[in-house]
Design brief:
The structure is a homodimer. In chain A, α2 runs parallel beside α4 (about 120-130) and α2 packs parallel to α7 (about 220-230). The first copy, chain A, has a 6-stranded parallel sheet, sandwiched between helices. Chain A has a 4-stranded mixed sheet with strand order 1-2-3-4. The first copy, chain A, contains 7 helices and 10 strands. Chain A has 2 domains: about 5-65, Hypothetical PUA domain-like, domain 1 (Ribosomal Protein L25, Chain P), CATH 2.40.240; about 70-230, SPOUT methyltransferase, trefoil knot domain (Alpha/beta knot). Chain A has about 240 residues and is α/β, with parallel strands linked by helices. The first copy, chain A, is elongated, with a radius of gyration of 20 Å. The mean pLDDT of chain A is about 95.
Chain lengths: ~240, ~240
């Protein structure tokens, strides 16, 4: 299935990049069928019309794909490298993440954040990953600079923070996830959360969890976290 | 802990890159303590001697870190992009993979394999990841061009192939892993395994498993597979 993304359901035209993909890469013709999602659960089966100047389509069938019975929100400190942040967004999207918040923490390298968290670019990467993995919901992606407000305002059912205090045993995230509900998982920067950040999170209902026996980079932890929440639904 | 890698235990000198890291980045001095691993479980606490032309050290204490009670082997078709193969190796190493075999399958793009699977570079990446995640065992990494022989000769306790035939329900890998033993997981290329490749694997004791509800890219599947095998040990 050739899946395309058009968030605005009043528009029945592919943008320049998708048009090129359609005509030059996939070599589709007028009358061929494509599928278009709006990234909010709508999936339309459409018939193409390859014009001289643009590619348009008309919907012949529409269905709404229901959301999953559970949701994954990852609030992660941005890494210092744009490509690692991009890799994280791509892989979390493949795994069906609903929401990604890049949270600036005490130990986040603030000078580079605006350069390494390019939201427009990250959303394009998420759109590609959504289409490639044949999903119909785009993750929401944002940058949060006020950690305290973010922690205070979160309303997920299950609140977890990836944190393993020295000499403490922490349970693996997969054992703390409540099935069929919303989970938010906080992942800190390379320099970890500060004790104050952890304390604030715990005062707001967050529990400390482990992501495994080995020490994972921030972006690996984010992906492992998503995967763990998916796996937990089967247990 | 500053962890360095020297596979040859007869050598007590850091190579050029590690010497530079030692003196210019970490700014260590003669008499400072570093730790050195040989990537085969040996961890030595050492005292540095920063010479004019090189950096040497002497071991003051040695311990052998036992291997885990279980092992992860991933046999994965190389992707077409060198950087995706490199990401895979880095993240699998962070997760403690013991063995990575890049297997050339029918649908692998053979013309690019030698360019996108640079074993020397991949081993350097694995060494960095091993040190960064504070582990003491280097994964073995190789390129396998004969799928049939590889399948015939494997001797892992649990043999799994990431494959979901149409209209069949396959169990998640996390439910098929036998704790405290060796697991090998085969992951196919973007174009999937051929029916013949799957048949041969099954004739050699491989069982089909799923890596989750969403469709993952090859490199994401490899990392999800490692993570699943780690998680399975806790269940």
């Amino acid at each position: 299935m050739h899946l395309f993304y058009q968030p605005d359901t009043r528009i029945f035209e592919l943008d320049e990049e998708e048009s090129r993909h359609c005509t030059k890469v996939l070599r589709l013709s007028t009358g061929d069928i494509i599928h278009v999602t709006n990234g909010k659960g709508l999936l339309q089966k459409c018939r193409l019309n390859i014009g001289r100047k643009n590619v348009t389509y008309e919907a012949v069938e529409s269905i709404t794909i229901p959301k999953r019975s559970y949701s994954i929100s990852i609030a992660v400190a941005p890494t210092r490298k744009a490509e690692r942040n991009e890799w994280m967004v791509e892989k979390m999207t493949e795994m069906g993440v609903e929401r990604i918040d890049f949270i600036v923490t005490e130990h986040t390298h603030k000078e580079t954040v605006s350069r390494v968290v390019n939201l427009a670019r990250l959303k394009r990467i998420a759109a590609s990953a959504m289409k490639q993995s044949q999903q119909y919901y785009m993750p929401e992606i944002s940058l949060i600079t006020d950690y305290n407000s973010f922690i205070n305002e979160t309303d997920a059912t299950t609140r977890l923070i990836a944190y393993v205090p020295d000499n403490h045993l922490t349970e693996h995230v997969v054992k703390k996830v409540v099935k069929d509900s919303g989970t938010i998982l906080l992942i800190g920067p390379e320099g970890d959360f500060t004790p104050e950040e952890v304390k604030l999170a715990m005062e707001n209902g967050f529990e400390a969890v482990s992501l495994g026996a080995t020490r994972l980079r921030t972006e690996t932890a984010a992906v492992a976290g998503c995967h763990s929440i998916n796996v937990a639904q089967l247990l």
